Every structure is written in structure tokens, then in C-alpha cells.
Amino acid sequence: MSLSAPTLLVQMNPTHQFKPVASKSRKTVRSSQCLEGRTSHSSKAVTVRTRTKPSRKQTRPQSSPVSLPCFRNTTILPPEFFQIDALDLAPRFLGKFLRRDDVVLQITEVEAYRPNDSACHGRFGVTARTAPVFGPGGHAYVYLCYGLHTMLNVVADKEGAGAAVLIHACAPVCGLETIQERRGQQTEKPILLTGPGKVVWNSWTGLNRIRY
């Protein structure tokens, strides 16, 4: 099952900025609004990771299902943005935003998967389960991992490539109360959304009901 734009992936001039506090990657990539860095191509998977947290001096905007002040100037990314090599696309996601209703997240950690990677679902070709990952870049590829965790991936490259980028972790920007309620935790610490299963299951109701 392929979902076209289940969330809005946008770039903007946010009222919130997140400070990079740690970086784990095979090649350092900084999270910023206009990231131009590129990762080198290789036959192995490249994991681009960066963690951020809100500045202590900043306050979070109030959640609103109708109007989000932090989203006054937004640009929904066009399909062409996604239709490049997964290794080039992954670092471009860092610092971008995901929105669904009153929940807005900033992407802080991603993983790139090419079809020649042994961990990529597209390595064995098209099947009933993996068909969405062979669609055009910009679609969502959602699957259940170990029968527990729902994982959100964004299909990369041209149609038929079989590549994707996993959204591994995010930082909450708007809708914190909604996220806390779904998580059953009142913390604002990064652990709230550090993990791909947490990003989907606790931030967007509906996506966690999709199965392949």
C-alpha cells in the first residue's frame, strides 16, 4: 500500500531553532535549515545521525489544530526534491519538518537505504510488501517491524529504484501535549521521539494501523 503525502514535509524559516548537542555519523553532517552537505557514495548503508534539543531560553508555541504560528511561512517540498539518490537525500532531510494536524516535528536523525544494501527491503526486488518502496520518490513506505514498531520511510530516487530514507528520530515543535498524551510521558527531553517506532506510533494516529 502506497501513501501519497501522509504528512507534510516542509522547509521554512521557523520560530524555533534547535541546538545541535551531539552528532553520530560516519561523516559529520550538521542539522540546519539550508543543508547543502553531501555524503559519499558507497555500496554500504550510510547512517546520518544528529541529535538536537530546544534552547532553554525558547518557549514552545501553543498547539492549535487550525492555525500554527510557527508555520506561517512554509513550503511543501516538491516531488523533485525526493527523486535523487538516497545517500544524497538523507542529509537534506535534517532540519526539515513533518506536520500532521496540530503535531509538528523537526527531523533530527535519518538512515539511508539503497537497494544494494543488505538491510534494504528493496534488495530482493518487487514483492507484495515492498512494492511501495519501488514507487516514485516522495511517497511514504510504512511497515511493521518485529510486530511492534511502525516505521515511516520516505521513498527516494526515481520510480523503480527501490531506495528509501528512514525517519529515525525527531524533535517536537508543535503539539507537545498531544505527543505527551500518546506517549504517556510528560517529559520534553529528546527521548520522547528518539526512535522510528516512537515517531509514528505516538505522533500520528492512523499511520500505525497500516500493515503490509
Word description of this protein:
This protein has helices at residues 79-82, 86-93, 176-183, 196-201; strands at residues 3-4, 8-12, 18-25, 46-54, 74-76, 97-100, 103-113, 139-145, 149-156, 163-174. It has 212 residues and is mostly beta strands. The protein has one domain (3-32, 47-54, 72-209): 3-methyladenine DNA Glycosylase, Chain A. The N and C termini lie close together (7 Å). Residues 1-8, 12-67 and 205-212 have low confidence and may be disordered.
Summarize the structure.
The protein is mainly β.
Which fold name corresponds to the CATH topology? 3-methyladenine DNA Glycosylase, Chain A
Radius of gyration, in Å, reads 16 Å
Order of helices and strands: EEEEEHHEEEEEHH
CATH superfamily: Methylpurine-DNA glycosylase (MPG)
**Structure summary, number of beta strands:** 10
Mean pLDDT: 65
The largest pleated sheet is described as: 10 strands, antiparallel
Shape from CA axes? Answer: globular
Structural class: mainly beta
Distance between the termini: 7 Å
Tell me the number of helical segments per DSSP (H or I, 4 or more residues long).
4
| CATH secondary-structure class | Alpha Beta
Contiguous runs where pLDDT drops below 50 for at least 5 residues:
1-8, 12-67, 205-212
Beta-strand percentage range: 25-35%
What's the CATH architecture? Answer: Roll
Return the domain count.
1
Q: Helical residue percent?
A: 10-25%
EC number: 3.2.2.21
Organism: Gossypium darwinii
GO molecular function, one term: alkylbase DNA N-glycosylase activity
GO biological process, one term: base-excision repair
